[in-house]
Amino acid sequence: MKKIIQDIQIKKPLRENIPIKIVDNDFSDNYTADSPVVIKRRIHVPRTPQTRIRKSGPHMNNYLFIVFILSLLVGALYFSYITFQKITITIQNKVQNVDFQNESFVGYKGGEKSPHFEIMILNDSMNQKISFSSGKNVSLKAKGTVIFKNEYSLKPQKLAVNTKITEDTGRIYLTDQALTVPGYTKDKAGNILPGTIKTTVTALEPGNSYNTEAKAFLVPGLQKTDKYAKIYAVSGSSITGGADGNMYSLDSVGLGTIEAAANTVFKEQINRKLAAEVKNGYILYGNATNFNYSYDPNTQSSEKDGVVQIKGTISAVIFKKDDLAQAIIHRVSPNLDNREYAEIEIPDLSVFSFNFTDKNQAITKDLNVLSFNMTGKTTMTWNPDLNLLKATVKGININDLDSTAKKDPGIEHISAKFRFPWQDYLPSDLNKIEVINR
After folding, report:
1. Which of 36, 162, 221, 335 could pair covalently with 19 via S-S, beta carbons 3.0-4.6 A apart?
2. pLDDT confidence of 407, banded at 50, 70, 90?
3. What is this structure's pTM?
4. Closest Cα partner for 282 from 59, 118, 39, 413?
5. Sequence-ordered list of residues with C-beta below 8 angstroms from that of 377, at least 6 positions apart, any chain
6. In a domain, 124, yes or no
7. Is 126 helix (H, G, I), strand (E, B) or coil?
C-alpha cells in the first residue's frame, strides 16, 4: 500500500498488468518495484472451535411463552385452591316439643339419684297496725313456752310445779306443771347431748313488762349447787299477753284485718325474701312451699290504735335446674346415650307449674324423698358438638355430608357452600371448615 502511495506522489505512470496479490496475515514490508500489489487482510482465527447454533424461528418462541404463562396460571390456581379453600356448613338443630299434664316425678335430697332438691326455711315477722276495741280494766299475766335441758347427769332430774326461772332482767316465771328432765346422752365422739323437755310458763306478776323475747333462763333454786349451770331452760316461744290496767283488746274486725294482712302482704313479703336467697343453679316454684304464721289474739294495748306482731315461717323445696331438666329430657326421650343427653337443653323451666303429689305435704329438714307433678308446655333443643361434627366430616365427599352428619340425632337439616364451586371434597384442615348453627 505504501508503494502505491509513493508511485502516486512521484507521478509515475501506472503500471499495467501488475499482478495483485492478496496475502492473509502477512505483515512484512519486503517489496520490490516489480512486486505485485499486495492487499493484506486480517482473518480472525478463534482459539476454540465454535459450534454453529441453528436459530429458532418466531413460532417456536411464541409457543414456549404460552406454555410458560399457562403453567404459571395453573400453579397460581392450585396454590389458591390449597390455601384459600373453605366450606361453610349450616345446620339446623333438632327441636322437640314437651307437653306435660300432671307428669309424676320423684325428687331426692341426697345420694346419687336425681332430680336433686334442697330445703330452705326462712323466719320473718311483720307489725300490723290495728284499731283495738273499747278498753277495759284487765290484769293478765304473760305466758309462753320454754325447753328445759339437762347437761348435769345421765339420770333424769325432777322439777316441781311452779319452779321459778328467770331471764337476764331478773323477771320471774313459774312452770305450770311438775317436770322430769331426761338425762343426757353422748355421741360417738363423746360429746354430751342434753336431755330435753318442753313446758309452759306463766309470769309471776301481771303486766306487759313481763312480755319478753328472752332466749335463755336459769333456775334460781339451783344457784348454790353444781346443777345451776347445767340444768337450764331456753325459749320455746315468746312470752306474751301480760297486761294490767285499762287495756284495749282485739275484736272480730281486728282479727279479720290481721288474718287478711298475714295471707297477703306478709306472705308476699316473706316469699320475696325467700326468692332472693335461692342459690344459683336452683329453681323455686311457688307451690313448692309451706307458709305458716302466728300472732297473739290476746294482744292488749294501752292505746286505741296499736300494732300486732305477726310471725311467720316459710319452708320451701328448691330443685337443681340441671337435674330437673335432665329428668324431663329422659322422660321425653328415654333411649338416647349419655353424650346426646348432654347436648339437649330446656331453655326455661319456669313455664311448668309444680304441685306436691300429697296436697298436705309438710316440708321439714328431715324430708329426703318427695313426689311431685309437673304441668306445662315447652321445647327442648339439641346443641350438637360442632367440633366433633367438623372432625367427623373433614375430607369426605360432599355427596356423603348429609348421611354422615345426620348420624348425630341433634341435626335436623344440613347444607354446605364451598368457596370454590368445583370442590368435591371437604378440606382436611379443620380451620377451613366453618359451621353455623341456625
Report:
1. 36
2. confident
3. 0.63
4. 118
5. 97, 98, 99, 100, 351
6. no
7. strand
CB 293 within 8 A of CB 271: no
User: What number of CA atoms fall less than 13 Å from residue 216's CA on the CB side?
Assistant: 6
Same domain? 158 vs 206: yes
Question: Which residues constitute the domain of residue 35?
Answer: 2-41
Buried b (16+ CB within 10 A) or exposed e, 56-77: eeeeeeeeeeeeeeeeeeeeee
Inter-residue contact 316 to 363 (CB < 8 Å): yes
Q: What gap in Å lies between CA 184 and CA 162, rounded to an integer?
A: 23
Q: Is the residue at 420 inside a domain?
A: no
Cell, residue 266 = 306478709
Task: Report the distance separating Cα 176 and Cα 434, nearest Å.
Answer: 82
Give the Cα separation of 360 and 288 in Å (integer): 11
User: What is the distance between the alpha carbons of residues 422 and 397, in angstroms, rounded to a whole number?
Assistant: 12
What mean pLDDT do residues 384-406 have? Answer: 86
Q: What is the DSSP secondary-structure string of 205-274?
A: EESGGG-B---EEB-GGGTTSTTTTTEEEEESS-BB--EEEEEB---HHHHHHHHHHIIIIIHHHHHHHH
Total tally of structural domains belonging to the chain: 3
Phi, psi for residue 269 in degrees, rounded to 5: -60, -50
Taking Cα atoms as reference points, which of 185, 186, 177, 192 lies closest to residue 146?
Answer: 177
Q: Residue for cell digits 307489725?
A: 127
Say if residue 89 is exposed, middle or buried (CB neighbours under 10 Å; 0-12, 13-18, 19+).
buried
What 3-state DSSP class applies to 380?
Answer: strand
| Domain assignment present for 311 | no
One-letter amino acid at 285 equals Y
Set of cell numbers at residue 240? 306474751
Answer yes or no: is 237 within a domain. Answer: yes
Indicate whether 32 and 63 sit together in one domain. no
User: Three cell numbers at 135?
Assistant: 278498753
Distances (CA, A) of 436 to 399, 415, 433: 19, 10, 10
pLDDT digits (tens, 9 = 90+) for 208-255: 899 999 999 999 999 999 999 999 999 998 898 898 889 888 999 999
Cis status, amide bond into 297, omega within 30 of 0: no
Whether the predicted pLDDT of 177 surpasses 80: yes
